[in-house]
């Protein structure tokens, strides 16, 4: 399946869905600018969690209609937990990471019992290619050196996410620097074992080890005589560790200039999850992506 994610995000942006979003530490210009646009489009209503004086200052000059936002005061060390509580209590539908460290938000998600039972949290980046078809990368932000069982859950999370947005049989490539199993390269060994573990599945295709070129380029796969349903046609790239995933994702965003949207998986609600360095476009894409997930 090839979906036009840009078109799907555009449709949700103008859906006037009115999702209720808890924003942890919203006081940053690109965050407030994006929230202002989404609120005025009718996509969301916001609960702005943080220091009241700081948030009030950030709202100056902004056009947020009365009734479209609520300020929830919280001291700095309480911001993430207060935002998670709004979701846990059913006040809000979506959690959004604002100008706050990843570790703070993750600890609050865990303490706030926002993780699906028996699941692990992982991060999925949707990267929009020039033709607007996405390539999904996981996990570039959470698991530093994931063990085999953690990689299995990362795959499960990614497959479930793609099922939710319309992929019937996601093609999942497990990346390594080589296509053959090497006793010197652990990522190749893990990839082979994960391929075996998912070989019985009919709701996805999982294959590895594959190099990045063979996973995304049919021409490269053909030149290396790599065949099969997945060769050169991956929907999802499972990276060996956080370093490789983070650099691959940010390279596509900051060097190749591709648009992106990143969400957490394994949680009870969609979580808008962006780097503090992210600009308005990435934040808006991610918010719309989270709303798309909430819709389905």
Description:
The chain is an alpha/beta fold. It is built from eleven helices and eleven strands. The protein has an eleven-stranded mixed β-sheet with strand order 3-2-1-4-11-10-5-6-9-7-8, with helices on both faces. Helix 1 (5-13) packs across helix 11 (280-295), helix 2 (29-40) packs across helix 11 (280-295) and helix 4 packs across helix 5 (102-111). It is elongated. The two termini are 18 Å apart.
Keywords:
single chain, 296 residues, alpha/beta, 11 helices, 11 strands, 40% helix, 19% strand
Average pLDDT confidence is 92
Count of helical regions: 11
Q: End-to-end span in angstroms?
A: 18 Å
Helix share of residues?
25-40%
Radius of gyration: 19 Å
Which spans have pLDDT < 50 for at least 5 consecutive residues? none
β-strand percent reads 15-25%
Q: Sheet bearing the most strands, described?
A: 11 strands, mixed
Q: Could you give the order of the helices and strands? A: HEHEHEHEHEEHEHEHHEHEEH
The counted number of beta strands is 11
Q: What's the overall geometry?
A: elongated
Strand order, main sheet: write it out: 3-2-1-4-11-10-5-6-9-7-8
**Structural class by SSE content:** alpha/beta
């Amino acid at each position: 399946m090839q979906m036009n994610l840009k078109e799907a995000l555009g449709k949700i942006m103008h859906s006037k869905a009115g999702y209720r979003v808890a924003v942890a530490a919203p006081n940053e210009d690109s965050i407030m600018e994006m929230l202002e646009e989404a609120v005025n489009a009718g996509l969301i209503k916001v609960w702005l969690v943080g220091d009241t004086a700081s948030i009030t200052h950030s709202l100056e000059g902004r056009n947020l209609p009365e009734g479209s936002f609520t300020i929830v005061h919280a001291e700095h060390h309480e911001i993430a937990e207060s935002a998670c509580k709004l979701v846990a209590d059913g006040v809000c539908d979506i959690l959004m990471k604002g100008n706050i460290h990843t570790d703070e938000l993750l600890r609050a998600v865990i303490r706030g019992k926002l993780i699906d039972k028996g699941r692990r949290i992982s991060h999925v980046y949707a990267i929009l290619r020039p033709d607007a078809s996405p390539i999904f990368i996981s996990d570039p932000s959470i698991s530093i050196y994931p063990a085999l069982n953690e990689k299995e859950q990362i795959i499960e999370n990614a497959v479930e996410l793609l099922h939710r947005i319309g992929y019937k049989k996601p093609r999942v490539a497990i990346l390594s620097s080589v296509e053959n199993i090497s006793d010197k390269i652990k990522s190749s060994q893990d990839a082979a074992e994960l391929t075996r573990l998912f070989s019985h599945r009919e709701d996805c295709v999982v294959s590895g080890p594959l190099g990045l070129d063979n996973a995304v380029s049919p021409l490269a796969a053909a030149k290396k005589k790599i065949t099969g349903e997945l060769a050169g046609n991956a929907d999802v790239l499972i990276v060996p560790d956080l370093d490789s995933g983070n650099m691959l994702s940010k390279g596509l965003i900051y060097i190749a200039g591709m648009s992106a949207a990143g969400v957490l998986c394994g949680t009870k609600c969609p979580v808008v999850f962006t780097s503090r360095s992210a600009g308005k476009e990435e934040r808006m894409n991610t918010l719309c992506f989270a709303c798309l997930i909430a819709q389905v």
